[in-house]
Amino acid sequence: MQDFAGRVAAITGAGxxxxxxxxxELSRYGARLALSDINxxxxxxxxxxxxxxxxxxxxxxxxDVADRHAVQAWADETAAHFGTVNLVFNNAGVALxxxxxxxxxxxxxxxxxxxxxxxxxxxxxxxxxxxxxxxxHLVNISSVFGxxxxxxxxxxxxxxxxxxxxxxxxxxxxxxxxxxxxxxxVHPGGIKTNIARSAxxxxxxxxxxxxxxxxxxxxxxxxxxxxxxxxxxVRHNRSRVFVGPDATAIDLGQRVLGAGxxxxxxxxxxxxxxxxxxxxxxxxxAKQPPAAPSAT
Length: 296
Known about the structure:
47% of the residues lie in helices and 14% in strands. The protein is of the alpha/beta class. The protein has one domain: Rossmann fold, CATH 3.40.50. It has a 7-stranded parallel sheet, with helices on both faces. Strands 5-8 form a two-stranded parallel sheet. It is globular, with a radius of gyration of 22 Å.
């Protein structure tokens, strides 16, 4: 897909960050945009500004991507309203900083519902509409944390690894079926978005300090640059897109070092990632006197 003019693009998480930047970048080409976000006011703001930038038409929908039926309804309404769907960006995501031991089930399920199931729901809901389009491309956002495991990020890594495997499998299926739907997995590195400030953290961890560290030390790429890189990947039909120098370096490190990269990850994590104190060990069970022999 070389030309985005007049193409219909559906974007989740369009109220901020990469989703908003994608909407604005596509607007400059005259695309038609179906935008969604859990924050109704934020996505409405994106839609209004997109029109000023040149979008042919926009819709703004409050959407919880963890709600399968709501995602299906939005996909069907989008196709009915615009008559077709050419581009889908399953972008909405959240973060959670907690060790496996400290992580609450509720927080784990919250993250998986958005970061993995939201992508799966969006893919399944839009795929029939994409198949009917003359040109179509599906983009699912994974992460560099879909390339390697990181301490305190087990839930996030689990979701992003799942997105990667899910999307790569789908890409093979589309190729085998000779479908016109192209599929891309995106692995962003540190992007200057609000994800760290809206993240959930384990009890005892300083959320403000974690967010400050992310913003100052790890977020090396702007959402606008990320959007341009992603759309360039769509134009060139890239199977995988790495966003940011950190993403490229991590991919290279995995290819060259494999498991040998893990000591470097631990060294980095030990210096920069806070870990909640370990829970106290359970007291040893009191020693019981030997049981009396049973009568025979």
